[in-house]
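Meet the record:
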Amino acid sequence: MKLKATILASVAAIAMPLAATAADITLRFGHVGNPGSLFEASANAFAECANGKLGDQAEVQTFGASQLGKDRELLQKLKLGQVDFSLPSSVMSSVAPEFGVFEMPYIVQDREHMRRIQAEMGDVFQEAALSEGYRIIGYFENGFRHITNNTRAIDTPEDLQGIKLRTPNGEWRVKMFQLYGANPTPMAFSEVFTALQTKVIDGQENPYAQIASAKFQEVQEYLSITGHVYTPGYVLVSENNWQKLPEDVRAGLEACGTETQDFVYEHAANLEAELLQVIKDAGVKVNEADKQAFIDASAPIYEEFANTVEGGAELIERIQNLASGS
């Protein structure tokens, strides 16, 4: 009955004029995070903030674990007005080329660096999103990514030779792992556990929060701490549908997009320590990879991005210059 009521409320919110009673506005937040994931905690914190601010004006309801669709489906459903918020990360590089800069290995140093990027360059990414009909109302995170597999410990890129590795649907992640010698296999996150369990793929790469909440430690033998990419998470809306919301509702939601970031970053940092231990306790063999070897091997992908994406060289330079806070 709750689902039926939510659908009816969503239809009413779209169909009725803005003068309709605010109680008719139900906003659906879909994401791919499993129970216990950073995505789930982040979306729930945003909803709690929004519902506190908006009172009886509107209600944000969250739907995790790909209940409302996988990443690409959620992007489509935003445009159709079937979902009001989603939380994409890597998939944004397929929405607009500018987001591919976050796929460059080791380009984001830490969360404070990401805050500076957001403050100094947020307009670049907002314009890129708007050009495709979306709007970013907050920056959360997916986190620093590491490699798990069932073949061998990964110390240098050469160790990835021939390993069939699941990646998200983003061209630069695929190019990166091809460069390292792996056999990258794009796949929806919800399909990864079964693919690992049935040995369709050898491994995958994700932050600890995604690895542990999806229970990949139950079907993986090795975890190699590479931290090869930091992926932001974007609180994304459809620009067309966003503009249909009352101005005060938009203001409250944007405020929560900003305010929830502190919780997300703090929670993410805590999860990194806690969940690494969870993975170790499951019997997974853990090693620290040679990050410099990966950095050295990554030069060609930086060069390709700079040469093929309009303004790519400038994006890379600006982000690198913000690493030290300069």
User: Anything to note?
Assistant: The chain has two domains: 2-142+232-273, 146-229+275-321. Residues 4 and 10 are 10 Å apart (CA to CA). The domain at 2-142+232-273 is CATH 3.40.190.170 (D-Maltodextrin-Binding Protein; domain 2). The longest helix spans residues 247-281.
